[in-house]
Amino acid sequence: MPVAFSSPPTWAVYEAESPPGQPPAVPRLPLAFEPFLFLTPAHQALQAHGQPVLAFYLEDPAAGRTVAQLFVVPAPDPAQPGLARSPGQASFGGVQLAPGLPVAALHPLLEATEAALRQRGQQQLEVRSYAFCYDPAGAATEAEALRQRGYEVVLAEQNYHLPTAHDYAAHLRPNERRALRKCHQAGLFLEQEPPLTLPWAYDFMQACRQERQQAPLSLPLERLQAVVRAFPRQHLLLSVREPGGDWAALAVAIQVSSRVLYTFYVASALRLKKLSPALLLYEGLHDFARATGSELLDLGTSTLPGTRQPNVPLLDFKRRLGGVAGLRLTWQKRL
Description:
Order of helices and strands: EHEEEEHEHEHEHHEEEHEHE
Shape: globular
Structural class: alpha+beta
Low-confidence stretches: none
Mean pLDDT: 93
Oligomer: single chain
Strand order of the largest sheet: 4-6-13-7-12-11-10-9-8
Number of domains: 2
CATH topology of the largest domain: Aminopeptidase
Number of helices: 8
């Protein structure tokens, strides 16, 4: 529900800088929204870019609430020294805001951010926002504020998600529905793996990517282990096993918020391609998301690593799963 802001509203921006590897300052006033996991100070501290983190909090002092926030990292990529980014190193960043916050309220927050970056010698700011399905109204408000301030969309990615209110099997394409039945008939079964199996799961996922000639996993094992240790309740390691116990497919999923379960890594053995164990894996993820009260399972974007080109076969697979299409936008502005 929309937050009751003060009338007339008075906005204040609280700005703080933290050294590399240290959590950014927490907001001075309670948040008027549930922050996404990637947009919390504790997770920001684990994003190993080696740069300070600038935290900007938009406050409504009269209401006693923090109504928006933005984390920015100056030049997280040494190859691009004048390009600040949000996020520094995560799946997304951007401005998260309270329900019902008007577009005009974001201008003081963005103005303070841009001024602070100019003072630090930054020439551009890139904002990779969360997918619209996470918060349609908030994403639209952020997009309009960025547009008004002269930001340009440099990447528009297709993002797919599965609503947990939908029956998973009923929304599969006919071929995929038949393949799912074959998975069950072949005796494949789901298993929630304990965190201690992560090193072996990591090796399995890397091997699956290598045999499919795909890019390696984006995080080294040590980084992934550190994040899972810091947020054990927000990470799910789910497998599909063959009747003999061997892994057929694996997924690392992240509870980004109470309403979103995000599929971070997914891998399946090439030797079982005809059986398509990933279909059973996604069924398990969908069921887990529904059982834990999430409203959607985020399947993520499908952009080829190192490029800004869509991975067409992967996009088609997500459509065959019954995925609902949406947008994830990346913006840039010269400061």
